[in-house]
Amino acid sequence: MVSRFAVSGLFLLLVVACSDRGPSYPKVTPPDGYLQRAEYQQEGRRLFRQLCAECHGRPAEGRSQRADFFHPPAPNFTSPAYRQADPAYLFWRIRKGKTVEPYLSRGSVMPAYGAHFSEEEIWSIVAYLRVRSEVLSD
Ligand code: HEC
Q: What domains are there in the chain, each with its CATH number?
């Protein structure tokens, strides 16, 4: 009896573990042209330098040395992997920051910027993050 409990418990754990496909977030799409147009990417770069670079690194510096002082650490936006990042995911993370799970429980320090920026401003930062690996020269 006990062992049957243990077995079904283990099975349940496996099911829970396998169904964890990352956080769910709204599948929103940017206004037309926001990801492609250089003027929006430039606007995103300007906002990033002002508010995000202190933790995430200035453009010329690449990834900030300070990034590793955080637990969990700040991500590496100089990575070309962000070219393929889901824009809706980046948009959600910038709006909600550490206020949503699983980041809340992990002790993230990422601020929530939803109340500070318009949606267009956040989309312009998303546009910048997706090309940041290519525009680090200044
Ligand atoms: C106080 C330091 C700090 C500031 C300021 C900050 N961040 Fe973060 N950010 C972090 C840390 C630490 C993480 C990693 C933990 C997490 O994912 O919540 C993170 C995570 C992120 C992620 C998730 C990346 C991924 O691959 O999952 C995005 C997107 C992001 N930050 C964008 C920004 C933007 C845009 C700004 C400025 C508007 C900004 N951050 C300002 C510390 C900061």
A: 24-137 (1.10.760.10)
User: How far is ligand 1, taken at its centre, from the CA of residue 116, in Å?
Assistant: 15
- Ligand 1: which residues within 6 Å by Cβ? 48, 51-52, 54-56, 70, 72, 74-75, 90, 93-94, 98, 103, 108-111, 113, 125
* Closest of 85, 107, 87 to residue 98, by C-alpha: 107
pLDDT tens-digit series, residues 69-81 = 999 999 989 889 9
pTM of the model: 0.86
Q: Are 40 and 33 in contact (CB under 8 A)?
A: yes
